[in-house]
Task: inverse folding
């Protein structure tokens, strides 16, 4: 690992811990830190091994995962903010600088998590008729889970979970349509703890089976230099053009987002290089921070990782992973295109230049020095699109990261390491008994060889540290997913999801009727307006919920509660899932809780709220595109409505509309725009984006005067004035 790459990782990690509650770890003394690191390493190796050599029984796999996750949270997250300031003193009530209460909670969490796998063979006879021990263990798990989630991701998700459990218990006292027979505490614990529809449900299963592996892959890929390669390539491609560093930020964030799947990680890693460069060429500080944070939110919608959403969609929709990521490609491109257009027009308006030639890396040198770092992503995609499971693809991606990382020490050649990887593949495919021990011996010999040199030691410990950090980054997501299982479980227990869907659609229908009555007859369709208002309310709730709830949890909650409402109005499940997911991600750049924007503002020394507002404006593509693919599903490529003419019409309209809206926001097209031009072309963009021939023509007609005016002014400005 190069010094520059190491510095970027260290700086990025400190900023992530500052702004992301899931990565704010308490300091520990050396002995305790080694113990915790060993447990984190064991968790990573457990997932790495099972991904390649076979998952355990479902309940056992999820139970072991949750036992590690919850137990570790009480060791690495302090109960209060004061615990992050310094290493606490070690004494009899705080052994290893961790209080006895935290040790007890960690043990209780592990025992309660492993209890269900322990009684699995008897579970068929216990569900619906839990014993006293079952209720006690389930209660313990619910309590420690809520506390673990509070520590790792904050208060909102536990508060929502407690609220829905109270709703289940006090059902007979609820008003109107929300009333239900109610459930005893024993029945609530039975449903949440002993069935697969609660805590041990799909959300936890997806994190334990897929998400953990891809978080680990992202950390390792960054550690071996793939992130730096992406940033360097983006600089080569876009650095020389007007506003070059901002365009580097967009391309770099798009590429880095493929492996990070995290808005904040994207912001601090890419932004550590691009934000200072943007400020240096003339962008205002808040705008530079907003560009990086807006582009970085694309990390969660960019295939192949997409945070955790892609894997959850696989389980919820029963579609292949390849189908999900194909559907995600065009909407993700629309997001980055929207940011790019505003950045480009802002640069033209302000006369900003690109980076000087001496600051631009040489393409040949970048590829020569970093070509091998692309191997992990290539291995992952090849295995994935060969029809194998996503976790097996992650296994080979991680294995390739280890090969690339180890090859940086000249004691062993890259070819020999590749041969070892091929041997592992042969052993997995042929299931020969002797292959495992032989490869274990070879790998042990390899590690021994590396440890005999200083450079080798650095590589070994760096890769081990990546496994530890990868596990640290994933435990907060694991707790959030398990807690979301409480919410999903209560929804299935009480049937409240369909009641909320009915309330939402009924209210939307009333709003639609009022709107139809106001406009001239024939200009508005009642069903279409009902769908529009339902989408609008769903989008607002997604953004508001996302202000306090992690994206993955937000997505699961909204799919459980809001997606049925969209289904009642004829929206396809895949389209509905993408809609709520996109608006959930927007919370990362939507004030007042715009974590990615605030991280960028800190790096730029800018006002956080102003940065968040600007970032939201720059993310207009992500705001508008979900409405486009609801009304024009052909944009998602894999829907039954897909045809090439339909796809080109829908996507072309979105591109033109985003260009016009970007010009309106920037106040610049071919030249500086007057106020009437900005308003008119901004209003014209909306009907152009709508995937309907009539509205598109209306929008183009509205935009025509502005386009003509801009062309004429542009030509006049290009004519040289007489001396």
Result:
């Amino acid at each position: 690992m190069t010094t520059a790459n190491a510095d970027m990782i260290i700086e990025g990690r400190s900023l992530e811990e500052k702004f992301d509650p899931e990565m704010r770890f308490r300091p520990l003394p050396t002995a305790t830190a080694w113990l915790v690191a060993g447990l984190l390493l064991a968790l990573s190796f457990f997932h790495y091994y099972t991904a390649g050599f076979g998952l355990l029984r479902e309940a056992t796999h999820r139970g072991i995962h949750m036992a590690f996750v919850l137990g570790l949270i009480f060791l690495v997250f302090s109960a209060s903010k004061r615990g992050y300031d310094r290493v606490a003193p070690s004494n009899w009530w705080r052994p290893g600088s961790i209080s006895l209460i935290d040790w007890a909670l960690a043990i209780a969490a592990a025992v309660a998590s492993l209890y269900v796998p322990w009684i699995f063979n008897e579970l068929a006879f216990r569900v619906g008729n839990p014993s006293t021990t079952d209720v006690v263990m389930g209660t313990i798990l619910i309590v420690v889970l809520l506390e673990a989630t509070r520590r790792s991701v904050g208060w909102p998700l536990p508060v929502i979970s407690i609220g829905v459990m109270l709703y289940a218990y006090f059902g007979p006292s609820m008003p109107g349509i929300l009333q239900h027979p109610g459930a005893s505490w024993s029945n609530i614990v039975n449903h949440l703890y002993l069935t697969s529809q609660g805590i041990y449900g799909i959300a936890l299963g997806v994190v334990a089976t897929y998400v953990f592996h891809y978080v680990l892959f992202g950390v390792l890929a960054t550690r071996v230099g793939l992130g730096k390669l992406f940033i360097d390539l983006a600089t080569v491609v876009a650095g020389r053009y007007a506003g070059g560093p901002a365009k580097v930020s967009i391309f770099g964030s798009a590429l880095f987002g493929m492996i990070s799947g995290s808005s904040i990680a994207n912001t601090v890693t890419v932004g550590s290089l691009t934000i200072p460069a943007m400020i240096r060429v003339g962008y205002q500080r808040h705008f530079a921070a907003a560009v990086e944070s807006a582009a970085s939110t694309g990390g969660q919608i960019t295939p192949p990782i997409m945070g955790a959403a892609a894997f959850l969609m696989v389980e919820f929709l029963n579609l292949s992973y390849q189908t999900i990521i194909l559907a995600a490609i065009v909407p993700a491109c629309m997001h980055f295109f929207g940011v790019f257009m505003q950045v480009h027009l802002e640069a033209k308006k302000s006369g900003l230049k690109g980076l000087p030639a001496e600051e631009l890396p040489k393409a040949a040198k970048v590829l020569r020095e970093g070509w091998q770092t692309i191997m992990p992503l290539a291995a992952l995609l090849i295995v994935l699109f060969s029809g194998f499971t996503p976790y097996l693809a992650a296994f080979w991606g991680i294995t390739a990261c280890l090969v690339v990382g180890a090859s940086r020490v000249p004691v062993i050649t890259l070819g020999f390491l590749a041969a070892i990887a091929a041997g592992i593949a042969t052993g997995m495919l042929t299931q020969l008994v002797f292959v495992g021990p032989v490869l274990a011996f070879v790998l042990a010999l390899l590690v021994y060889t590396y440890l005999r040199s200083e450079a080798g030691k650095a590589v070994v410990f760096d890769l081990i540290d990546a496994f530890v950090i990868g596990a640290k980054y994933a435990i907060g997501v694991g707790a959030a997913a398990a807690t979301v299982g409480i919410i999903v479980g209560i929804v299935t227990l009480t049937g409240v999801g369909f009641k909320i869907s009915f309330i939402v659609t009924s209210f939307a229908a009333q709003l639609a009727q009022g709107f139809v009555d106001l406009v001239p007859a024939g200009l508005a369709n009642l069903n279409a307006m009902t769908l529009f208002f339902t989408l609008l309310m769903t989008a607002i709730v997604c953004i508001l919920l996302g202000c306090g709830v992690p994206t993955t949890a937000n997505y699961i909650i909204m799919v459980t509660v809001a997606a049925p409402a969209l289904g009642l109005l004829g929206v396809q499940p895949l389209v509905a899932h993408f809609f709520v997911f996109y608006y959930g991600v927007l919370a990362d750049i939507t004030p007042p809780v715009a974590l990615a924007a605030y991280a960028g503002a800190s790096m730029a020394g800018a006002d956080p709220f102003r940065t968040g507002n600007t970032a939201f404006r720059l993310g207009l593509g992500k705001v508008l595109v979900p409405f486009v693919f609801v009304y024009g599903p052909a944009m998602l490529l894999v829907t039954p409505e897909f045809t090439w003419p339909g796809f080109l019409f829908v996507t072309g309209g979105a591109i033109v509309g985003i260009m016009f809206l970007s010009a309106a926001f920037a106040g610049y097209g071919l030249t500086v725009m007057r106020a009437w031009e900005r308003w008119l072309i901004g209003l014209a963009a909306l009907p152009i984006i709508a995937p309907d021939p009539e509205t598109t023509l209306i929008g183009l007609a509205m935009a025509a005067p502005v386009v003509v005016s801009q062309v004429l002014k542009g030509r006049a400005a290009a004519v040289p004035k007489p001396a």
